[in-house]
């Protein structure tokens, strides 16, 4: 960080992750700096080093930029930022895999914070076009992460196919929080077990069984999208693995395992992997593959959930 009374030649975080990025510090975040200066008398600049969070340079740049801007927007309301999913456990595909983040705040986002973060998300998409529709960020406050087993609380989420929005989240988000606890990577803040209520392996498996049962009814929504059908098939493979082993793995790892466990479904699972990679292809008959998808999902839902 540098504070001075003149101008700065530093670049803003939006210029990408070089050696350094800098951005003017708004008056709202001066309390976060805790340096006792007034913005009327000083020109405050923040400088952030480019942290090497992961091995993919472009994704690493995205993470650094997102974190730097969250710090400026949220100030001391930002408690921690955690990366989870395939970027952490492996099998990340630079062309199709999502980037999954949990941002923990002290309190729910207020109107100004929500609006600024929404603007940030839109700007990030412009700077990192290859990640358009491939980022999920959940903003959950401390109380929500401590009481999700017994009540629902408001969180804010941006995810593939959905704009930035607020929703009620409770035990239905247990799987996400369990993955953060077990396999998440801390990008900023304390370890995740200091902000998320403990979750046992048994609770995780029970949540997986509930989700599998829900898919038996939800699968109809995949009828018009072959990539979504592929997602459903691979999700059930992963749920089957989680039920057997009590842990979450990537869709690819689960699919390869399921092909051994379920040889009669090997061809369909292989197709699902291909449909996922071929998500940009619009010249397909989406409904032609639905009957087999529905059959597999309902079969697996019954096997996993025991009905």
Written description of the protein model:
The protein is an alpha+beta fold and 307 residues long. The chain has two domains: 51-199, OB fold (Dihydrolipoamide Acetyltransferase, E2P) (Beta Barrel); 202-305. It is built from eleven helices and nine strands. It has helices at 30-33, 57-74, 86-89, 111-127, 142-147, 174-183, 201-218, 226-245, 251-261, 266-277, 290-305, and strands at residues 2-4, 20-24, 43-49, 78-84, 99-105, 135-141, 153-159, 162-169, 185-188. Helix 7 (201-218) packs antiparallel against helix 8 (226-245), helix 7 (201-218) runs antiparallel to helix 11 (290-305) and helix 8 packs across helix 9 (251-261). The protein is globular and about 55 Å long. The termini are far apart.
List the helices and strands and how they pair.
Blueprint: E1 2-4, E2 20-24, H1 30-33, E3 43-49, H2 57-74, E4 78-84, H3 86-89, E5 99-105, H4 111-127, E6 135-141, H5 142-147, E7 153-159, E8 162-169, H6 174-183, E9 185-188, H7 201-218, H8 226-245, H9 251-261, H10 266-277, H11 290-305
Parallel strand pairs: 5-6
Antiparallel strand pairs: 1-3, 2-3, 4-5, 4-9, 6-7, 7-8
Helix pairs in contact: 2-4, 7-8, 7-11, 8-9, 8-10, 8-11, 9-10
The largest sheet is: 6 strands, mixed
Secondary-structure element order, N to C: EEHEHEHEHEHEEHEHHHHH
**Whole-number average pLDDT?**
85
- Our measurement of the CA-to-CA distance between the termini, rounded to an integer number of angstroms, reads 58 Å
How many β-strand runs?
A: 9
**Proportion in β-strands:** 15-25%
Number of helices: 11
Classify the secondary structure makeup into a structural class. Answer: alpha+beta
């Amino acid at each position: 960080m540098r504070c001075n009374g003149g101008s700065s030649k530093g670049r803003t975080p939006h210029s990408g992750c070089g050696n350094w990025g800098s951005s003017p510090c708004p008056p709202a975040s001066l309390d976060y700096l805790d340096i006792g200066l007034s913005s009327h008398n000083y020109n405050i600049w923040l400088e952030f080093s480019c942290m090497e969070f992961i091995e993919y340079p472009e994704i690493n740049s995205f993470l650094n930029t997102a974190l730097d801007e969250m710090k400026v927007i949220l100030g001391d309301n930002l408690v921690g930022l955690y990366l989870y999913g395939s970027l952490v456990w492996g099998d990340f595909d630079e062309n199709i895999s999502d980037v999954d983040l949990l941002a923990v705040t002290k309190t729910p986002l207020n109107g100004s914070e929500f609006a600024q973060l929404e603007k940030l998300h839109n700007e990030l998409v412009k700077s990192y076009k290859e990640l358009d529709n491939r980022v999920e960020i959940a903003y959950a406050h401390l109380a929500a992460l401590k009481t999700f087993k017994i009540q629902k609380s408001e969180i804010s989420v941006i995810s593939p196919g959905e704009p930035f929005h607020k929703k009620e989240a409770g035990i239905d988000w247990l799987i996400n929080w369990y993955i953060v606890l077990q396999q998440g990577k801390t990008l900023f803040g304390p370890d995740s077990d200091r902000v998320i209520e403990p979750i046992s392996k048994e609770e995780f498996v029970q949540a997986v069984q509930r989700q599998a049962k829900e898919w038996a009814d939800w699968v109809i929504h995949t009828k018009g999208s072959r990539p979504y059908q592929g997602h459903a098939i691979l999700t059930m493979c992963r749920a089957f693995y989680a039920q057997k082993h009590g842990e979450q793995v990537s869709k690819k790892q689960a699919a390869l395992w399921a092909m051994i466990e379920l040889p009669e479904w090997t061809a369909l699972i292989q197709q699902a992997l291909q449909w996922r990679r071929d998500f940009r292809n619009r010249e397909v008959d989406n409904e032609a593959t639905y009957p087999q998808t529905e059959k597999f999902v309902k079969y697996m839902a019954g096997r996993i959930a025991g009905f």
